[in-house]
Design brief:
- The strands form 3 sheets. Strands 3, 4, 7, 8, 9, 10, 11 and 12 form an 8-stranded mixed beta sheet that branches.
- The protein starts with a strand and ends with a helix.
- The chain is globular, with a radius of gyration of 21 Å.
- The chain has 13 helices and 16 strands.
- By secondary structure, it is of the alpha/beta class.
- α1 runs parallel beside α4 and α1 runs parallel beside α9.
- The mean pLDDT is about 95.
- The protein folds into 3 domains: about 210 residues, FAD/NAD(P)-binding domain (3-Layer(bba) Sandwich), CATH 3.50.50; about 130 residues, 2-Layer Sandwich (D-Amino Acid Oxidase, Chain A, domain 2), CATH 3.30.9; about 40 residues, no CATH class.
């Protein structure tokens, strides 16, 4: 039985570990936090899983909340110009509904499931020396930790990294009691674009205490929506959100009058520098050198404006699992790692980077697409499906 180590207990790492255990591999996963610590911690993301990623989870038997998480069949998009004028509106309805499950629920349960299914979980932190020792004891070591010291072992690929600084600052809050603009219409996501200021996304989700709404501000750095740099407590964060909504999106402010944070860990803040890293790292030198393969956020980090994070992680984990199985008994060389990662880059990851860059920079022709979407439902539908299948970006949205 081949021995494989996975470092990182996010979407990519846990999904890969669970898949390899199901395929008969001996898997050790290194996680920094226990399931109890994950459930009791702060929210981790604003994930919305689109159809292709949901199908991957379903095929692996990991879609444990399909009957609980609200299905979101459409996104109501509004272009807003000062002072709070709804200048352009359209609805995007993809071919398959999206679903969002609080990753505290998902990842904690997947950790437990991995041990139940025969995987080994080690709860500890790793530095470079610890990773090198782990890699020596396994035939393949995959690093799916996108933050901290280990993420830094993968060199930035300047030719593929579109930015060298964050393009937005981020503020996320999970809330109960948010009103609906049309209670008879069922769950719907909402997107507001405020040119020069940023974007607001709202989506129904499932959290620890049941159905909720997730709000994400994508603020232009230094602008008036960039108001959460001090990382306020959830109640203070909510108060500021209400102030911003009252000034810029008063119709949303009405829906948030009775809202309250879902729990003490309901808020998240920060900024992301979209980055592509080289996928293979060498630890040590000479005959003592070992190589490790990067996966998910350890290699490609996108701004969440297009919702690609968890979706791309799910696809990356499945691509890696298949590559391992197809490799049979052959050694997992550095060359194999590079070829495996490059194949995924060409097939999927580069499209997520290009699509996200387009949405962050909003070239003139994209504004024309928004105007066309308001007139033609087929354009709005194709735009919606590009979020689910970003490879289509190159076929129609990439150039004027």
């Amino acid at each position: 039985m081949r021995r494989i180590a996975v470092v990182g207990a996010g979407q990519a790492g846990l999904q890969l570990a669970l898949g390899l255990v199901a395929d008969g591999y001996q898997v050790t996963l290194v996680a920094e936090r226990t399931p109890e610590q994950v459930r009791g911690g702060r929210v981790l993301s604003t994930q919305a899983m689109f159809g292709p990623a949901q199908r991957i989870e379903a095929a692996a038997g990991l879609d444990l909340w399909a009957d609980e998480a609200p299905a979101v069949p459409s996104v109501d998009a509004v272009l807003v110009v000062p002072p709070a004028v709804r200048a352009l509106e359209f609805t995007m309805s993809p071919d398959e509904p999206a679903r969002s499950v609080d990753q505290r629920i998902k990842l904690a349960r997947w950790l437990e499931l991995l041990e139940e299914r025969g995987g080994r979980v080690e709860y500890r932190s790793l530095d470079r020396d610890g990773l090198r020792e782990l890699a020596r004891r396994h035939e393949l070591t995959v690093v799916a930790a996108g933050r901290g010291e280990l993420a830094g072992i993968f060199e930035r690929d300047a030719a593929r990294s579109p930015f060298d600084r964050p393009q937005r600052t981020l503020s996320c809050l999970y809330a109960h009691g948010v009103g609906s603009p049309d209670p008879t219409a069922g769950p719907r996501a909402r997107m507001h674009a405020l040119p020069g200021l940023g974007e607001l996304y709202l989506q129904p989700a499932l959290t620890l205490s049941g159905p909720c709404d997730v709000l994400l501000w994508e603020a232009q750095p230094g602008g008036p929506l960039d108001a959460f740099g001090d990382r306020p407590a959830a109640d203070v964060q909510l108060a500021r959100i209400r102030e911003l909504l009252t000034e810029y999106l008063p119709w949303e402010a009405e829906l948030w009058r009775e809202a309250e944070p879902t729990d003490a860990g309901a808020g998240l803040w920060g900024a992301v520098t979209p980055t592509v890293r080289r996928p293979v790292a060498e630890l040590g030198s000479g005959v003592d050198a070992v190589h490790v393969l990067g996966l998910g956020d350890a290699v490609v980090v996108n701004d969440p404006i297009t919702g690609q994070g968890a979706n791309s992680a799910a696809r990356a984990a499945e691509a890696c699992r298949r590559a391992v199985v197809e490799h049979g008994d052959a050694p997992f060389t550095a060359d194999w790692m590079c070829r495996t990662a490059e194949r995924f880059w060409q097939q999927h990851a580069r499209h997520t980077v290009e699509f996200t860059t387009t949405m962050l920079t909003v070239p003139d022709h994209l504004q024309g697409v928004f105007a066309a979407a308001a007139e033609h439902p087929e354009v709005a539908r194709r735009l919606a499906n590009t979020y689910a299948e970003p490879s289509d970006h190159a076929a129609w949205l990439a150039a004027p």
